[in-house]
Amino acid sequence: MTGAADPAVLTEALRRELCATGRLLAAAGLVTGTSGNLSARLGELVVVTPAGVALDALEPDDCPVLDLAGNRLAGTLDPTSETSLHLGVYRTTFAGAAVHTHSRDAVAVASVRTELPPLHYTALALGGTVRVAPYATYGTPELAESVLTALDGKSAALMANHGALAIGPDLTRARDNAELLEWLCGVYIRASQLGEPRVLTEAELVAVIERSARPWRPEGT
């Protein structure tokens, strides 16, 4: 295929963005070595990171281009082992991008909790309480199904003894959500060291939603 119909041409900018996002995640410490993977959707096409390549060493041509059935349309390297999870995200959500990390605090929380409760109101950006998907071997349909169930209605899910998945309308938002989730996990760990964390109530979270929906006005007006 040539010209505008060539998937490699259609997705060139997205492949570059995937590489840039991988470098940002590595610099932030959310991925190390070849751990973690990313994807982004463009219509009926999905660009994913390849298997076995460190995210801070990616080049655009390294990133395979797939259709929603998983057929490889461009790229010479094998797609990430978590391809079934990424494709499942696009079949079941309106997400435009997905970020899977093995970040330290997310792994720690996901190794001891069945959910991450909302200690801070910014958890609302992820849907409030973050569920922890039961453990399954990486790259398996069982893991993909488990994580997609935990992700239902949320912008992120933790993966027991494994890591985390964050989604968003684009790579910037998905990366922001991954960073927020790691921060919230860190807050939970530190709060737990001091005592029993105080979890925000549903009424308190609703009040935040209502407050954010109101236009701001100077006090006294």
Walkthrough of the structure:
Strands 4-3-2-1-5-9-8-7-6 form a 9-stranded mixed sheet, with helices on both faces. The protein has 7 helices and 9 strands, in the order ααββββαβαββαββαα. The protein is globular. The mean pLDDT is 93. Helix 2 (12-27) packs parallel to helix 6, helix 3 (83-92) packs parallel to helix 5 and helix 4 (104-110) packs across helix 6. It has 221 residues and is α+β, with helices and mostly antiparallel strands. The protein has one domain (3-213): 3-Layer(aba) Sandwich (L-fuculose-1-phosphate Aldolase), CATH 3.40.225.10.
What is the succession of H and E elements?
HHEEEEHEHEEHEEHH
CATH architecture classification name: 3-Layer(aba) Sandwich
Mean pLDDT over the residues:
93
Classify the beta-strand content into a percent band: 15-25%
Q: Helix/strand/pairing class, anyone?
A: alpha+beta
Task: Assign the CATH superfamily.
Answer: Class II aldolase/adducin N-terminal domain
What's the number of domains? 1
For the biggest β-sheet, the strand order reads 4-3-2-1-5-9-8-7-6
Low-confidence stretches: none
Shape: globular
Q: What summary fits the major beta sheet?
A: 9 strands, mixed
Number of strands: 9
CATH class: Alpha Beta
Percent in helix: 25-40%
Q: What is the count of helical runs?
A: 7
CATH topology: L-fuculose-1-phosphate Aldolase
Gyration radius over CA: 18 Å
Q: Span between N and C termini? A: 63 Å
Domain Class II aldolase/adducin N-terminal: 16-189
Keywords: Lyase, Metal-binding
InterPro entries: Aldolase_class_II_sugar_metab, Aldolase_II/adducin_N, Aldolase_II/adducin_N_sf
Pfam family, one: Aldolase_II
